[in-house]
Design goal:
Layout lengths: L25 H12 L13 H4 L7 E6 L4 E5 L5 E2 L4 H13 L20 H5 L10 H14 L3 H13 L5 E2 L1 H9 L2 H12 L7 H13 E3 L1 H7 L1 H4 L14 H14 L5 H7 L4 E3 L4 E6 L3 E6 L10 H14 L5
Antiparallel strand pairs: 1-2, 1-8, 3-5, 4-5, 6-7, 7-8
Helix pairs in contact: 1-14, 3-5, 3-12, 5-8, 5-9, 6-10, 7-9, 8-9, 12-13
Bound molecules: glutamine.
Glutamine binds next to loops.
Length: about 325
């Protein structure tokens, strides 16, 4: 295993809240952001390479945050469900780490790629080891790890999402999953290419089916903000009251989100937003303020990197107005 920095002892004590947010008028801040984005509805493009997402209207915007002490603030279409797409990569990497721990890093690297989320280009150089778990190639290997590591992987995924979000009816959207399979030439190629290097163990079709299911999950901003609370709370989930992963792993998933969660715009996200974040081509972005809150914003119009255009703006304004940033 490539481990240039030696692990110290497992750190599992939640760090104290570094920010005092008691003076912030969070509903007012969300309201201001909503006012600012409304005149810009229509900007960006829906993910038209997936037929089922192409027609999503560009007049929807929702934002929700869940503080570590359980308060929820929301604005706009925060209770409308949308296709979570690559946001699910945060949850599946967590499941894979639960199953195999650090052995995951023998099969997926932890470096930003600087290339688009669906790029295959570096796979040849790196002999089928994807650069990180948040690009499609990495998520396909993660799917393979989950297929080998869980008796009923689909059920395990649904249970994970339901217990993290506290929303018992979270499920996949069959129309989206089918549409992804029909237009999934790149993902199909990527999975086969990785398999040719021996870094996929299961049937390629089974890996793809699992991957399309996770991408097709339909959730709203409040569900999604809740679903990543464990990353704000040092590995503890407040919906289920359980420890999902160690504090150390929660910290590390946050670091991966910071360096690779928004693909080849991760540098810009660090620059303008300064929070670990994970986007999906459904237009959702989740973000984490460690020890303080988790957030989700949704606007289906994407920028040229596949990140929600107004979602990115909203998070930028949020950190600007609140001063909340990991930097
Ligand atoms: N399902 C999409 C794909 O595989 C997910 C990509 C994304 O959300 N960035 O292309």
């Amino acid at each position: 295993m490539r481990e240039p920095i030696r692990n110290g002892p497992i750190q599992n004590e939640p760090i104290q809240n570094q920010f005092d947010i008691s003076g912030l008028d969070l509903p007012d801040i969300l309201g201001t952001i909503h006012e600012e984005v409304r005149p810009r509805f229509g900007e960006g493009r829906a993910a038209d390479y997936i037929d089922a997402l192409a027609g999503v209207p560009l007049d929807r915007f929702g934002m929700a945050l869940v503080t570590c002490d359980g308060r929820v603030h929301e604005v706009g279409d925060s209770r409308e469900r949308f296709s979570i797409q690559s946001i699910s990569k945060v949850h599946t990497v967590t499941m894979a780490l639960q199953a195999v721990g650090d052995a995951l890093w023998e099969r997926v690297d932890r470096e930003p790629s600087g290339d688009p989320f669906n790029s295959l280009i570096q796979l040849e150089y790196h002999r089928g080891i994807p650069r990180n778990p948040f690009m499609n190639a990495g998520a396909l290997v993660v799917s393979d790890v989950i297929l080998s590591g869980y008796g009923q992987p689909e059920q395990a995924l649904l249970e994970f999402m339901r217990s993290r979000s506290g929303s018992t009816d979270v499920g996949g959207d069959e129309v989206v999953a089918r549409s992804e399979r029909e237009s999934g030439f790149r993902n199909i190629a990527t999975a086969n290419f990785i398999r040719s290097f021996g870094n996929i163990e299961n049937e390629v079709d089974a890996v793809l089916d699992f991957y399309f299911l996770q991408c097709s999950l339909s959730m709203d901003c409040v569900d999604l903000a809740r679903s990543v609370q464990y990353l704000a709370r040092g590995g503890y989930c407040n919906a289920s009251g359980t420890q999902v992963i160690s504090t150390q792993l929660a910290t590390r998933i946050n670091s991966l989100m910071m360096t690779a969660g928004t693909y080849d715009a991760a540098g810009d996200f660090a620059f303008y937003v300064g929070l670990p974040a994970k986007s999906g081509v459904g237009g959702g972005i989740v973000a984490v303020v460690p020890h303080v809150m988790s957030l989700c914003v949704w606007y289906p119009g994407l920028d040229d990197k596949g990140n929600s255009l107004l979602g990115r703006y909203a998070l930028h304004r949020f950190t600007q107005m609140t001063g909340l940033s990991v930097f």
